[in-house]
Specification:
The complex is a heterodimer of chains A (378) and B (391). Chain A has 378 residues and is of the alpha/beta class. In chain A, 41% of the residues lie in helices and 14% in strands. In chain A, α3 (71-85) packs parallel to α4 (101-112) and α9 (259-279) runs parallel beside α13. Chain A is globular. The mean pLDDT of chain A is 94. By secondary structure, chain B is α/β, with parallel strands linked by helices. Chain B has two domains: 3-168, VC0802-like, CATH 3.30.2130; 180-388, HUPs (Rossmann fold), CATH 3.40.50.620. Chain B has helices at residues 19-34, 60-67, 86-96, 98-103, 122-136, 190-200, 218-235, 246-255, 261-279, 299-306, 322-331, 335-338, 360-367, 372-382; strands at 2-8, 40-45, 48-53, 73-82, 106-113, 141-142, 149-155, 160-163, 167-171, 180-184, 204-211, 238-244, 285-286, 313-314, 384-388. In chain B, the strands form two sheets. In chain B, strands 1, 2, 3, 4, 5, 6, 7, 8 and 9 form a nine-stranded mixed β-sheet that branches. The two termini of chain B are 30 Å apart. The model of chain B has no long low-confidence stretch (mean pLDDT 93). Classes of the chains: A alpha/beta (378), B alpha/beta (391). Chain A binds chain B through residues 304, 306-311, 313-314, 327-328, 375-378, and chain B through 213-218, 249-250, 253, 341-342, 346-349.
Chain lengths: 378, 391
């Protein structure tokens, strides 16, 4: 049975060339970048190269990139690190209500530390309500956080407009963007877009799990979450995960190179998929019009997402019910969008990656039809 | 100094002519449990099993921990062994219990002399050992009523044993001494408790789990496997069958009135389990049902499910409250696994208003719409077994 993986927003298969590089780093270029000898220097060169590759995707200065273990850590470093740096002020933070838990929970922590946190409900189509974000910013607002692409619906944020509106209210307010679903797939230039902090991770772009990064605009001050030596400017101490960092660099470079080609590919695939889904009785599209082409959220009211997922997995088809990190819990994103319980409980997310083909999506359509015929409704 | 573990086999001691069989079974169970700790010698005498390390560097703490989950053991005690000579007994007590004697203020010595050939009577042994310890530890006073520490001297056939009291064992009687029974295991809190409770009364347990993919997930099955693995600490090796149940669930949904869904399903489970149980030489079925806990566990509902099997259905938690069951599941360390959120029986097949006072005749009538024989045969034949070794 062919494996058809349509859950690329959860994670992606590692690019074999990238995996080869990681293996080489483990077995050959295995030095500790902090070691004084040549072996250590070679490892440092590999980390530096990866930093340049990742920075290039953002048209940024490599010195502005901090490698972390994952996107969650990058988000926490951005939010909690800012909260710690400005702990005397303890002003306000503004955040989208449909953010990933690594942003939402970090904000909860800030709240428990005495910060005022304003949560902005998305527009009914799932896109962020920029006017509401701007309205919530006051002279005490230290940070605004909004994802670039919603991981469940693919809703795309006009980050530039958001940043402009925020900075118009308070030029000192930092804009943080969780770009985990956008990095490498959408053109991002944090400096030009007015983004001060931007997080991403490797495993969403065919690098291995265990590496992420935070872009920090010049002049932004953060307090580290963990304490140790001076790796990553002291913001992420501990021996660098050189194999993963090198792999992340290569994957980022490759992804950036094929970005436009892939965008066209995803757009054509999604158009066809949407058209076919709209012809099916009882299927609803949840993703907004402006969503990115590689994420499509749909509902099949009457069925339960997890049962559909387990039915499809037996056909070798892997899709998701929402954010993979929230095993089994009801989607807070779709809830924030105001969808009915029936729509939320039957939601499926199809997310494409660079290896997704037309045949894969056809197989998904067939599988879904088959599931709707055979699976018991509630 | 030689150190050994003494196993006191409470209830077995009351057995009559087949007491030896029970003891042998207990020794076999202990041996299996101790295999990963190292090599031991076992001997039995006077209602006590002597576990002697047969190799150097054995961790007796780990051995005690392993034995603490063996059913059939009333009490365990770690003890120094020495010659049956008063001088040696006194110095052994002072040396072996030095840390504990230094840390307390009051103590007393108790003696059990089961070797009646030993010249001194028990009170005198206690007095001599007590006097010696008082002379060595100046922090100590004797308090016969409420001592901080009781030093026990046992003078037995093979030697003298000195220890500072015993710890309670798991109780019950040895697993396997009462035969074998099949446990219907879901993934919830109750069934692992029911299984261990019957293991405590001497039954070897096999598991039967009903899986309904895609309505139940691989993770839900994995959870059951983790539960069974945990249970092996108490029950010993467990063989578990996973019965394919999707088709039956779908047939029930299509052909049975909604308020009878659960009851017809339970009756299927009983019939299938009976077939597997008989094939596996089991003498009973075990379930984790507790009276009145849910609609399918009313007295009338239990009557309707019992009637489809000729085997006795053991329900050890029938009279227990949820809190009591939870307390037991914490003790056997299955609670944390049981409360993981993967559904074991999907709500798709759960009626909104189940019948609480069903009648057997009605159920028999309803079941006529189903190919009972065929569905049961298919499920039994499709059942796959997997063994879980104790760890």
């Amino acid at each position: 049975m062919e494996e058809i993986y349509l859950d690329n927003s959860a994670t992606t298969p590692t690019d074999p060339e990238v995996a080869q590089l990681a293996l080489k780093m483990m077995c050959e270029n295995y030095g500790n970048p902090s070691s004084l000898h040549r072996k250590g220097f070679d490892a440092q060169l590999a980390v530096d190269k990866a930093r340049e590759q990742v920075a290039a995707v953002l048209s940024a200065d490599p010195r502005r990139i901090v490698f972390t273990a994952n996107d969650t850590e990058a988000n926490n470093l951005a939010i909690c690190g800012t909260a710690q740096a400005l702990r005397r002020a303890k002003g306000r933070m503004v955040v989208g209500a449909a953010e990933h838990a690594s942003v939402g929970r970090a904000m909860d922590w800030c709240e428990s530390e005495g910060w005022e946190v304003i949560r902005i409900a998305p527009n009914p189509d799932g896109t962020p309500n920029i006017a509401a974000f701007a309205a919530a910013v006051d002279e005490r607002t230290a940070l605004v956080s909004c994802m670039a692409v919603n991981s469940e619906t693919g809703a795309l944020t006009d980050i530039k407009a958001l940043s402009k509106a925020v900075k118009a209210k308070n030029p000192k307010t930092l804009v943080h963007c969780d770009a985990v679903q956008a990095f490498g797939r959408i053109r991002l230039n944090p400096k030009a877009m007015g983004i001060d902090l931007l997080s991403a991770s490797g495993h969403k772009i065919n690098a291995p799990k265990g590496v992420g990064m935070l872009y920090m605009a010049q002049g932004v001050r953060l307090v580290p979450l963990i304490h140790g030596s001076s790796q990553e400017g002291g913001l992420h101490p501990g021996t660098e995960h050189v194999p993963n960092i090198a792999a992340f660099g290569l994957a980022a470079e490759k992804m950036d190179r094929s970005r436009e080609k892939l965008w066209k590919q995803y757009t054509a695939l999604k158009e066809e998929l949407t058209e076919k889904l709209e012809q099916m009785d009882g299927v609803y599209i949840n993703s907004p019009q402006n969503a990115v082409p590689y994420i499509l959220n749909l509902s099949v009211p009457g069925y339960r997402s997890e049962i559909l997922i387990h039915y499809l997995e037996r056909l070798g088809l892997y899709v998701s019910s929402g954010s993979a990190c929230a095993k089994g819990a009801r989607s807070h994103v779709l809830t924030a969008m105001g969808l009915s319980d029936e729509r939320i409980d039957s939601a499926l997310r199809v997310s494409m990656g660079q290896y997704t083909t037309r045949q894969h999506l056809q197989a998904f359509l067939q599988g879904l039809e088959q599931a709707m015929q055979n699976v018991a409704k509630k | 100094m030689n150190e050994i573990i003494l196993i006191k086999n409470g209830e077995i001691a009351l057995k009559g002519l087949n007491r030896g069989n029970f003891e042998d079974m207990l020794i076999k169970n202990c041996k299996r449990r101790l295999r990963r700790v190292g090599s031991f010698k076992f001997s039995k005498a006077q209602s006590t099993i002597y576990v002697t390390p047969a190799q150097e560097d054995i961790d007796l703490d780990e051995a005690m921990d392993c034995l603490s989950t063996v059913y059939g053991i009333a009490a365990l005690c770690r003890s120094a062994v020495c010659e049956k000579d008063m001088q040696v007994i006194c110095t052994t007590a002072a040396e072996y219990l030095a840390d504990q004697l230094s840390a307390v203020k009051t103590f007393k010595v108790e003696t059990k002399r089961s070797d009646k050939r030993f010249p001194l009577p028990s009170p005198q042994i206690s007095a001599e050992v007590g006097g010696y310890l008082l002379s060595k530890f100046h922090n100590l006073k004797v308090d016969v009523h409420n001592p901080d520490l009781i030093v026990t001297v046992e003078v037995r056939d093979f030697g003298a044993y000195v220890h500072a009291g015993q710890t309670p064992g798991a109780g019950g009687i040895p697993v396997g001494s009462g035969g074998r029974a099949a446990l219907l295991i879901s993934g919830g809190i109750d069934s692992p408790v029911a299984g261990c409770m019957m293991a405590k009364r001497g039954l070897e347990v096999i598991g039967i789990h009903f899986a309904s993919p895609p309505y139940t997930s691989d993770r839900a099955l994995y959870k059951v496997e983790q539960l069974v693995q945990k249970m092996t600490r108490w029950c010993g090796r467990i063989y578990m069958y996973v019965v394919p149940f999707t088709k039956i669930q779908e047939e029930i949904r299509d052909k049975v009135p909604e308020d009878y869904f659960t009851l017809v399903m339970r009756r299927f489970m009983m019939r299938i389990s009976e077939k597997i149980a008989l094939r596996e030489n089991c003498g009973a079925l075990i379930t984790g049902e507790s009276l009145g806990q849910v609609a399918s566990q009313t007295m009338q509902a239990l009557g309707c499910t019992d009637i489809v099997t000729t085997l006795p259905v053991l329900r050890p938690v029938i009279g227990m409250d949820k809190e009591e069951i939870v307390a037991f599941s914490r003790k056997i360390d299955t609670f944390e696994i049981s409360i993981q959120p993967y559904e074991d029986c999907c709500t798709v097949f759960t009626p909104a208003h189940p019948k609480t006072k069903p009648k057997v005749a009605d159920l028999e009538e309803i079941e006529k719409a189903l190919d009972m024989e065929g569905l049961i045969r298919e499920a039994v034949e499709g059942a796959e077994g997997k063994v879980f070794h104790q760890n």
